[in-house]
Model the fold of this input.
Amino acid sequence: MLNETQRADLAAPLLQMRIIVFALAMGVAMTTVIFLAIADGEPADDPLISYIALGFAVMMVVVWLVVPNLLTRHVRHELAGQQAAGTAFEREATVSDSAIAPLLKAYLARLIVGCALLEGAALFNLVAYLVEGSLSNVVVAGILLLLILSHFPTRDRVADWVARQWEASRHESARQF
Done:
C-alpha cells in the first residue's frame, strides 16, 4: 500500500505516462481520419494485405498479453532478490520509498511496449485499408485504439499496480529466503 506522500509523488511520472498514451492514441486517431478522407473506398479484388494486417493484429494482441507481463516479472524478481538479500529493502507492509522508482520504471516500460505493439498493428491495418479499401481493417484499428485508450493511467491504477507488484515481490523474496 502506498502512503499519501508516495501517492502524491506519482504526479510527474503520471503526467509522462498520460502524454505517451495520449500521443500514441492520437497518432492512430489522426491517421484514421486522414486515411478515411483520402481513400477511394473501393475494395480490392484480392485483399491479401488486408488479411495479413488482420493476422498481424491478432498476433500483436497475443504478444501484448504476454510481453508486458514478462517485463513485470523480471523487475519483480529483481526486487524480490534485493529484499531476500536485505540489501535495499525493508520487510514492511507498505511499499518502501526505494522500491517506487524501479516499479514506476517497470510500469512505464510495460505501458510503452504494450501500447506501441497495439499502435503498430493499428497503423498497419490503416495502411491496408488505404491500399485495399477493406473496412474490416478500420474496425480492427478502432478496436486497437480502444485497447490503447484502456491503458490510460490514473493515479489509483498506477498506485494499485505498484502496491500489487510490491506485495508479489515480497512473497517471492519470502520463498527465496
